[in-house]
Every structure is written in C-alpha cells, then in structure tokens.
Amino acid sequence: MREEPAEARELYNVRTVGGEPVLSPLTDEEERRFRAVLLAELGHEISARGRARFPAHTPEDRRRLVDVARLLTEHWGQPVTAVAEDELRMCLHLEGHAPGIGPAREAGAARAAPSLPSVPGAI
User: Fold this and answer.
1) What are 9-58's pLDDT values in tens digits?
2) In the chain, which ranges are E strands?
3) Which residues have CB under 8 Å from 47's CB, separation 6+?
4) What is the pLDDT of residues 74-85, one digit of tens each?
5) CA proximity to 60, closest of 31, 36, 37, 39
6) Can you give the pTM of this predicted structure?
7) Torsions phi, psi of 89, nearest 5?
8) Separation of alpha carbons 107 and 4, rounded Å
9) What is the rounded CA–CA span in Å between residue 82 and residue 2?
C-alpha cells in the first residue's frame, strides 16, 4: 500500500491543540491508567516501527496523544512528534518516519530507546 506524500494531502477542519482546559469524562484514576496504557502501547509500536497511528476524535484525545509524545520524547531523549493525519487520527513518529515519508522500519530496527518508562500503579 502506497502512502501519499504529506505535502499532497489537504487536511480540512484540523486545528492545532490549544491550551484551554477541557473537562474529561474520566476520573483522575481512569485518566492516569489510560495515559499509562497509551504510553506503553504506542511506545512499543513506535520503538518497533518508527511511528504509530491512533484515533483522536476529540480535542481531549489529541491533547492526550500530544502529551504521550512529550513523555516519550523526555524518556528516550529523541523527539517524538504528534501530527494530525486527518480529522479522526493522529500519528506519533520518530524523525524520518512521518506519514508519507516512506515505509516504517521493521520490528527492532527503529532508533528508539530500549525500554519504556515505568508508570507507577499501571495495570
């Protein structure tokens, strides 16, 4: 399957993530657990393939994914970028693995850190 170059796509109704607070339907404990799962699952996929895609239907979902990218950047010491692919999906990627830049690396070949951060209290 061939992906279009990032420059050729036009994204409509996709806005940058703002700084205004949004009330979450999740409790603080549920939010913490969900972020821990995202951090682990997306981190494993990014370390294996160089990028990971995830649905982002609401501004809150997009903020969460941007925060996961920031946490992975801090842990690995190399930039993990979160970009909107369309209105409903975001891609978190390492440098050189953005959507449309070519195939993701095969398992084990990415330049990611060897391990993920431990999240206290994660299931």
Assistant:
1) 666 766 665 666 656 688 999 999 999 999 999 999 999 999 999 999 99
2) 51-55, 80-86, 89-94
3) 110, 112, 113, 116
4) 999 999 999 999
5) 31
6) 0.64
7) -145, 145
8) 23
9) 21
